[in-house]
UniProtKB/TrEMBL annotation:
Domain of life: Bacteria
Keyword Signal: yes
Signal sequence interval, chain numbering: 1-25
NCBIfam families reported for this sequence: SgcJ/EcaC family oxidoreductase
Lineage: Bacteria, Pseudomonadati, Planctomycetota, Planctomycetia, Planctomycetales
Record's keyword terms, sorted: Signal
Keyword field contains Cell membrane: no
Pfam families for the chain: DUF4440 (PF14534)
Domain DUF4440: 38-146
Annotated InterPro entries: DUF4440 (IPR027843), NTF2-like_dom_sf (IPR032710), Steroid_delta5-4_isomerase (IPR011944)
Protein name stated in the entry: SnoaL-like domain protein
């Protein structure tokens, strides 16, 4: 596989979420426009790579661009980059990429460093190959181009690309009824291998139940799987299946009195600040339990800033 396949994919931003993009210091002139321009180039690069279009990819580089691979070898010049991508697509047709931009830092007017992670899949069904990258962007006056690329070794494999469709869950959420309150918080674990959720239920002003859920990738079953534990002593596991904007979770577990319980829970994404949840097919021991109708859950706004 071409040495370009990891860091040279820096402009690929398919599925890029706003919460994955950070900036330490914006370029003094028009920072938002510069961010947008780099991301626009990213979308163009992604389409070209997935279409096997080496010419469009090469055009993203400056004439004298350099690429530094992890082993220290250097490929210099746009023409050499074009030749390399052309040969790569010839040898491995159907390559697909996914990229997460982790940071964009402006060093001054017309110069920016981008870092991130990429996943390259040779063909459908293969395990993606993960890599890290750093790229130097320059604004030539005719747009942003790549001047230098460097591979960065990835010390630990992350399953982020398996879970990123659930990234909208990250944050604090609340469902408030007439006499009940459910507060949920979700965050990433280190290396983004798990989503960590905590929940607390209050009824009539009193704490009723709280617990935690860990959502991750089951490499053996090749499915998203979750493990839930509550402070009453119950625990459960679930397998997650995507159906458009819905996530269907088949749950089974043990409640604190030793009875086996099962249910089908459904999370539905509405927008970035709203989702719904419902539970059906609920069984506890030998008893069929009533379904829980769809509940609307909203994102909690950040606390107000107090001026000092």
């Amino acid at each position: 596989m071409s040495k370009y396949l990891f860091p040279a994919l820096v402009l690929a931003a398919a599925g890029l979420s706003a919460c994955c993009l950070t900036s330490v210091a914006d370029e003094p002139s028009k920072p938002q426009e510069n961010h947008a321009a780099i991301q626009e180039s990213a979308e163009k690069f992604t389409k070209a790579f997935n279409a096997g279009d080496a010419a469009t990819i090469a055009a993203q580089f400056t004439e004298n661009a350099e690429y530094l691979s992890e082993d220290g070898s250097v490929i210099a010049g746009r023409e050499a980059i074009l030749e390399d991508f052309t040969e790569t697509f010839k040898q491995s047709p159907g390559l697909k990429i996914e990229t997460t931009i982790e940071s964009i830092r402006f060093l001054g007017k017309g110069v920016a460093i981008e870092k991130g992670t990429t996943w390259v899949t040779r063909k459908e069904g293969d395990e993606p190959i993960q890599g890290g990258y750093a790229v130097l962007h320059v604004n030539t006056g005719e747009g942003w181009q790549i001047a230098h690329v460097r591979e960065i070794a990835v010390p630990q494999t992350s399953n982020y690309h398996r879970l990123k469709e659930l990234e909208w869950m990250v944050g604090d959420w609340v469902d408030e009824g007439n006499d009940s309150l459910v507060v949920t918080s979700c965050r990433w674990s280190k290396n983004k291998n798990f989503l960590l959720r905590s929940f607390k239920v209050r009824i009539a002003g009193r704490d009723a139940l709280e617990g935690t859920t860990r959502i991750g990738w089951d490499a053996e079953a090749k499915k998203i799987r979750s493990w839930t534990f509550d402070d009453a002593g119950g625990f459960a596991q679930g397998f997650w299946t995507n159906d458009g904007d819905r996530w269907i979770v088949k749950m089974n577990g043990i409640v604190n009195d030793g009875q086996i319980a099962s249910a089908t829970n459904v999370f539905t994404y509405i927008d970035s600040n709203t989702c719904t949840w419902q539970s059906m097919d609920r069984v506890r021991g030998d008893e069929v339990m009533p379904n829980i109708d769809e509940i609307t859950i909203v994102r909690q706004p950040p606390p107000p800033q107090i001026d000092k």
